[in-house]
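Homework help board

Subject: predicted structure for assignment chain

Our instructor gave us this sequence and asked us to write out the predicted structure in token form, then describe one feature. I got the tokens but I'm not sure how to describe them. Can anyone check?
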Amino acid sequence: MGATFSLVLLIFFNTSFAGQNGDSTAPKKEKIFDADEVIFGHISDGHEFHFFSYHSGGKEHHVTIPLPVILYSPQKGLTSFMSSSFEHGEKTVKGYALLTGENMEEWKLDSKKYHAGQIIAVNEHGEPEPGVKVYDFSLSRNVVQMILALALLVWVMLVIAKKYKRGEGVKTAPKGIQSLLEPVITFIRDDVAKPNLGHKYEKYLPYIETVFFFILFNALIALIPGSANVAGNIAFTMLLALTAFVVILISSNKHYWKHIFWPPVPLGVKFILILVEILGVFTKPFALMIRLFANMLAGHIIIICLVSLIFIFGTLNKVAGYSASPFSVAFVVFIYFIEILVAFLQAYIFAMLTAVFVGQAFEGEHHDEEVHL
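My token output:
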């Protein structure tokens, strides 16, 4: 998959090489390869799935899957259309424009307020209208891919559940996808839920398993060329962290809060530790959010950077670009294998830490039961 991804970019990517004989009568010079635009364009959200671009007949063509654009403006009302209508920022649609690096530079827009991929309102002359507020409720590629991953997860689990109802995997050996996922499910149950949640593991096991597989499916699908890096989106990891935070609070008891507001330490350090413990209530979910976000984002950036080296060298010299290709492709393939491992590892770590934090929330209650017995 990594080699295919690199080869597609190598063949089809819109790359230009500097120093084209300096002929003033030559066609308009193409844009030099912009690594920043490619990297941040890949890791950021968007209104379409973009696979690659190519030139044919003197015109640039894009292979994409457009997505629905749903906009609301107090001045213009509710509007919807397909993202392909923008033609990659070259046209305005129903009084709206899609920002790109080119038109942002042309309109001299402040990069602190605007960013590429954002949709803004324009007047009848195609010029920005800063006073018009635009609310974007579009089905972005992150949202669509997350829905697809969720649908795939539900379908896979229902297929496995039906097999168990028929006695497959109970009276006989599991087969197919059932044999692939059953060891993973039992591993999460026996090595994550039971050691950390104790006698209440069955109550939280569905949540822990769902979190693990939801992260795993999104991380693996993100490795398909042209797909979105959902697990590397801060909004995605923040929602998972907030969910874990709510579960932790609901699971807490008086022993948990007593340990926070009156920890069993000498009086001299008690008040300092109280502040630390209160801060720890919020840093736990925050750590879950940042750890997953950073690790899933870093791998995709490395892959795109390695592929970009081909075109960076190519802008200097064609021979250098083609010479760098085998090394870049080899490293991309290696990182792809690492990313598969990282997908499983990060899903496991998130599930493990969630189970640990939830277990700590009712840990005092568990100790009391042991003393009573």
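Reply (TA_rk): Your tokens look well-formed. For the description, you could write something like this. Residues 267-316 form the longest helix (50 residues). That's the kind of observation they're looking for.
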